Amino acid sequence: MRAYCKGLGEPAYRGDQIYHWLYAEREFAIDRMSNLPGAFRDKLGRAATINVPVVRQRYVSADGSVRYLFALDEGKTNAELRGGAESAENNRARRPAAVEAVFMPSDGRQTICVSTQAGCAVDCQFCLTAQLGLIRNLSAGEIVTQVLLPLKEMESVAGKESGPAKEERPASEGEPYRSESEKGLAARTNVVLMGQGEPLLNFENVMAALRILLDPEGVGLSPKHVTLSTSGIVPGIEKFGKEPMRSKLAISLNASCDERRDVLMPINKKYPLKALMEACRNYPLRNWEHLTFEYVMLGEVNDTAEDARRVVRLLAPLKSVKVNLIPWNPGELPYKESSAEAIEEFRRILTEKGVPAFVRYSRGRDVMAACGQLALKEVKESPLRVVG
């Protein structure tokens, strides 16, 4: 943004101001960026466009969760903005698409589950998103706006409930605009990269998005409140661990042995459990951090006491772990939910053997917004092509 503003003949710090408006204030109208000179706003309005995904549909759950269906257009690529040529790969990567995200409110905090790809190529057999195949990668901006738009809606609702806004002091020249009503919102927000797609197969765009989400001058989320979930892409895990600014990491385990995981998660054939556990052992945990393992409970498939004991042995060499047991959410797939008794026995075995385990019931099941349920109902009537 600083380089872009300099290219327009403006001071570089104007880029800082625009960045703050977009990500800290979630303001997408150039004419409302009140600490920019009027002449610059006019120039910017002629030279640039702020593309924001369209909310095509909202599905509201009885538990208060909201499943968003975003329509994503092509937008402009960096090369086009520079007047350069665009590669065939980038042309394919920016095709129109649609993607889903989920907003989940709770007392004093909210969680936003975002997607990193439209569809997914990993093909986990118990996940409805896998049925879509991979449509395309999402850009960093498309990932970030899945957080910005629900937050902006929350701010709008909160503003209406609190009555007329207080008069705001105009920002001085060069000074960041600060809105009193929006302070502290990011501190009450969790973000999980657990929607459609495999984040580590869209590495560069995901990292660009995380840097904005975690930047105190950007969206301002704490790394302790952001989690990236992977199916176990070993090179991506190794690369992610070297990033100076990163979120927490969660591993989708879902099986206690290679034979079963090969079937449930075909990616295991490329990165089997031995390689995955080695990457987890070498992962550089921060002093406050633990590795989270997600385990979807499938009735009479991976939920036996022996499965639990194998998970204990599998995780024993790791330094600091916890396991989230996730009851399978029904969909049009040939699986069934584990019984409450089987889930509790599984949890008890892990806990008694020193592996912290928690049962995580998903939100938004009635609007197909729960873990593994995100799949575009419109896809059969859609003109979108699947990659591969």
TL;DR of this structure?
This protein has 388 residues and is of the alpha/beta class.
Task: Characterise the protein shown here.
- The chain has 388 residues and is α/β, with parallel strands linked by helices.
- Helix content is 31%, strand content 18%.
- It has a ten-stranded mixed sheet, covered by helices on one side. A two-stranded antiparallel sheet has the order 5-6.
- Strand 7, helix 7 and strand 8 form a beta-alpha-beta unit.
- The protein is elongated and about 70 Å long.
- Mean pLDDT is 85; it is low at 75-89, 164-183 and 379-388.
In spatial order, strands of the major sheet run 1-2-3-4-7-8-9-10-11-12
Average of pLDDT: 85
| Largest sheet geometry | 10 strands, mixed
Number of helical elements: 12
Q: Helices and strands, in N-to-C order? A: HHHEEHHEEEEHEHEHEHHEHEHE
How does the helix and strand content classify structurally? alpha/beta
Beta content = 15-25%
The separation of the N and C termini measures 35 Å
Poorly predicted runs are: 75-89, 164-183, 379-388
Outline, from the CA principal axes?
A: elongated
Q: For the CA atoms, what is the radius of gyration?
A: 22 Å
Number of strands: 12
Helical proportion, percent range: 25-40%
